[in-house]
Amino acid sequence: MEVNKVLDAKGLACPMPIVKTKKTMEELNSGEVLEVHATDKGAKSDLTAWAKSGGHELLKDTEEDNVLKFWIKKA
């Protein structure tokens, strides 16, 4: 999967992962992919809901060594 930008939101508590994701997503063009790394357990439900509400596509999410990783394609 081609990633256009990586956002490191590790160590940030809600709502900062969403705030930073939204700000970074504004820098991307439609169809580009943002990879987000977060450690806040709430980020999974928050980012999933945020992507859906914004019309973006959550391509994949995984967890490695307590780091949640998300790949979001911009609408």
TrEMBL record:
<dbReference type="InterPro" id="IPR036868">
    <property type="entry name" value="TusA-like_sf"/>
</dbReference>
<comment type="similarity">
    <text>Belongs to the sulfur carrier protein TusA family.</text>
</comment>
<feature type="domain" description="UPF0033">
    <location>
        <begin position="7"/>
        <end position="31"/>
    </location>
</feature>
<dbReference type="InterPro" id="IPR001455">
    <property type="entry name" value="TusA-like"/>
</dbReference>
<dbReference type="Pfam" id="PF01206">
    <property type="entry name" value="TusA"/>
</dbReference>
<protein>
    <submittedName>
        <fullName>Sulfur transfer protein SirA</fullName>
    </submittedName>
</protein>
